[in-house]
Each structure stands twice: as structure tokens, then as C-alpha cells.
Amino acid sequence: MLAGGLLGAGLYFYQVAVVPGQKSFLSKKTPLRKSDPLYHQKLWYENANKQRWTIKSAGGNYRLVANYIPATHKSAKTVLIAHGFNGSKNDMGAYAYLFHQLGYNVLLRDARGHGQSQGNYIGYGWPDRLDDKKWIQQIIHKNGDQSKIVMFGVSMGGATTMMVSGLHLPSQVKAFVEDCGYTNAKTEINYQAQQLYHLPTIVRWPLINIVSGITRIRAGYFFGQANAIAQLHHNHRPMLFIHGGKDTFVPTKMIDQNYQATRGPKQKWIVKNAGHAKSYQTSPKQYEQHVAAFLKQYVK
């Protein structure tokens, strides 16, 4: 009976944690309002002319979709932007504006199982890292060998960015910027199980391992594989780490573990009073200045 109960709970939490769809613990999306600190940036994205790019996923033969916005003036610089958990490329419009203002071409992709991309599961960055390597190759194919590529991501997209950094990548990839990414999926899911469901450790750990096993069968990976820290140990490229000082969804302390793990040039910025994925809207000008100053050093 205990085993059956744990399996049933595991199947339920697989739906909660891994299957895309409405989530009660996430804020509902609201229409754009002028009171939004990033109103101008988001409105720009809504009105921008977007090209549609597609590729096949690195595994599973999914059709993946992205929006491409060329720079105002011909540019070798391109940013690949990764969205968060259960989000989409269109959630990242303000960041698209930021990089476009810096003279970048902008590619915003939908991860597998999100937005317009095919797939029936959330990858927590692990299968997505290989898809993003394919997007990087697509940028070089379309924009040429002289491309200078930056990857940027927020939340799950930030973790994905760190996971990508540990891959063998083309020399055209120059730097990374990650905002509030977690250390690894298993630790983050354990934290959320405690925060949202108040499950004691004696229940959480076997349950998470069961859900991880179901995820391996249905989606092809274990939670423990989606490990940003392990990937950062292989990264020697520059990376800017950003995190909100009052982030209770991906705990602020995770930035220190990620920062220590990388092997390349690095900077860290904790935005005082910012909640999860709210650093840009909390300090828009400072955010733009930090990103611009960091990239100016490494993307020339």
C-alpha cells in the first residue's frame, strides 16, 4: 500500500513538475499595463517585426520554434534568449529590447514543450542544452562564421544557459549572462516540494526520486542530470551572474554556488529587494548598465 501510494503521488507530481500546462503556484499572465516598469520595452517587442526560425530538436525529433529580430544596423553580434519554467519566448520581450538596443540580433526560442515548440515535457535545461547548441549552430549558419554569440536566460533559462556553457561550443560563442538560475533541478524541486507542499524530508526524497525515475522513462533524463554546477566546472568563457536579493523561488544563495563553480572570467550582481525574475523590472537602468558593461569587455 505504501509503495502504491508513493507511485500514485509520483505520477501526480510528475504532472505538476514536468508536464507543461497551467500551474497553480505560478502567477497568471496579465495584459501589458502602462504601470509596468518595463512597459516601453515590452511594447517594443510586441510591435517588432519578427522572423520565424525553426529547427529539429537534438533528440526526439521535435519541431522547435524561435523569433528572430535583426539588429537595426547589420551586426555580427547575436544573443540567444532562454525563457523560464512553463514560459515562452514572448515572455522575454523586455530582454530582447535590451540586447537590441545594444546592437544585437536577437533570437528568442521556445524550449521543447513550451510555446509553439513541440514536446510534452519540461526539460529543466538538460535536453534543452543540446537544442540550444543547435540554435547556436543555426545562428552561425544563417549569419556567418564571423558571428559573435551571447547566450542569456532567466530562471530555468538561466540554468539552461549555465548547462550550455559546459558543452563543447563553437568559438563564435563569446559570453553568457544568467539571471536567477538554480544549481540543479533536483535541489530546486526538493526546495519547492518543501515550500509549496510542506512535505517532510522523509517523504520528499523518496517521492522526488520516484518522480525522477518516471521522468527518465517518459522524458529521457533524471532530475540529477540537470546540474548547472557540474556543467559550469567545464566552462571557461565569461559569465555574468544576476540574482534578486529577495528571491524565494530560486533561493538567492544559489548564485554563490553557481558563481564559485565556473572556471572563466566572471562577475556577480545581487539586486537588492528584487524577487524571483524581477531584477530587471526592479532596477531597469542598473540592469541595462550591468549587462552592457559586462558584454563590452568580451564581445567586441
Distance between the termini: 62 Å
Provide the succession of SSEs.
HHEEEHEHEHEHHHEHEHH
Biggest sheet details = 8 strands, mixed
Overall morphology: globular
Taking all residues together, what is the mean pLDDT? 96
Low-confidence stretches: none
Using only C-alpha atoms, the radius of gyration works out to: 19 Å
Tally of contiguous helical segments: 11
Residue share in β-strands = 15-25%
The tally of strands reads 8
Strand arrangement, major sheet: 1-2-4-3-5-6-7-8
Helical coverage, percent range = 40-55%
Helix/strand class: alpha/beta
Short description:
By secondary structure, the protein is an alpha/beta fold.
Descriptive key words:
300 residues, alpha/beta, eight-stranded mixed β-sheet
